[in-house]
Protein: MFS transporter
Amino acid sequence: MGVPGSAGTTGAGVPGPAVTDPAAPGSPVAPRPTRGLLPLLFTGNTAMYALYIGVPGMLLALQIEAIDPVDKVANFGLVSGISAIFATVFNPVAGALSDRSGRRNPWILAGGLLALPVMLLLGSVHTVLLVTIAWCLGQAVMNIYQAALTSVVPDRVPMAARGKASAAVGLGLPVGSTVGALVGAAFSEHYRTGYLVFGAIVAATAVLFTACAREERMPPKAPMPVKEQVAAFGSALKDHDFRWAFIGRALLVLGYFAVAGFQLYILKDHTDLPAGLSAEEAVAILMPVNSVAMVVSTVLGGWLSDRFDRRKLFVGASAALAALALLIPALSTSWTGMLAFSVVNGLGFGCYMAVDTALVTMVLPKAEDAARDMGVLNVANAGPQIVAPFVASLIVSLSGGYTALFLVAAVLSVFGALAVRPIRSVR
Structure:
């Protein structure tokens, strides 16, 4: 699955900032409030996350298991890892193309409509190689959609309304995750139909968004040369506090996705499910439970960290809580243990992402390079998602089970908690 903002998704590039702030007062391209834009942003992101959760988290795992049940873990890790690399590379390319055109709606519409035939293709292939190719195409069209949709907020939402817009976008993750899990479970025995349903959801949402959210052509934006992007990455990481924030985020995201990506197989091969409850139905129960816990801790953690002005404390404590959650299924294979893990993990990860994002904005090296440096931080979200499937499949294959995977992920989360201690400029 993806981290808010990913992939878990899985593509994580952020289009480069415009030279002129479109939200600046008096700017010739200052965005004007768009009636109904916030519900459309929520709907667009919900559809995107539904596919990102339901396809790789359920249908793709079932398809790969049907093709080769013996080597399903290694094959799933391979397909997930290669597609994550493809998505991470393609997202900024798609963003740059929409920047150059000065428009977002055509790219949202194109990516959304193309999702339907690509999902049809994915459901019709029968080898691991062809599944890999088809899912990489799926990542391509979804990143066209995602890159353009992500740019709508800075393009069209006034600065005073950015908080509400961010909330609308952020709520798409837990709601979309729940929808994805429920739809995936409903079509677990007919995954080809399930692929079409997810493609249709994204396509219909793209049509709805572009029909209802009118846009004015923006001045084309010049993309940042590759050499400048590399130099910017190195410059940001030279800053002491930003570097430790980057390391902490990367470690926690790696631990989280190493487990999250294999949830269906964990339920099939590690958890003692009650009689009559299938692994697919279990996912459909766990995902809403996790999402509710995540929403609660995101709101509560952000509010409490503001109230007490203590970011490091909440970031470290929530990362430690995530580590504690991972010990539950390592010590118990019961269904009750998995339910407890889902709740505690949601509480820890939701609070971490909310407060850590606030912490990062406080340790950015230069205010004038804020957008650029937040893009650098995005590597800490995307990079671990690329590595996680390979790492997880290797650990499971070598250890012969999932207990070692939980323990390694817990250690990574502990290190993520400790990484905030050296930060000096934030309490």
Remarks:
- The domain at 1-19+34-223 is CATH 1.20.1250.20 (Growth Hormone; Chain: A;).
- The chain is about 75% helix and 0% strand.
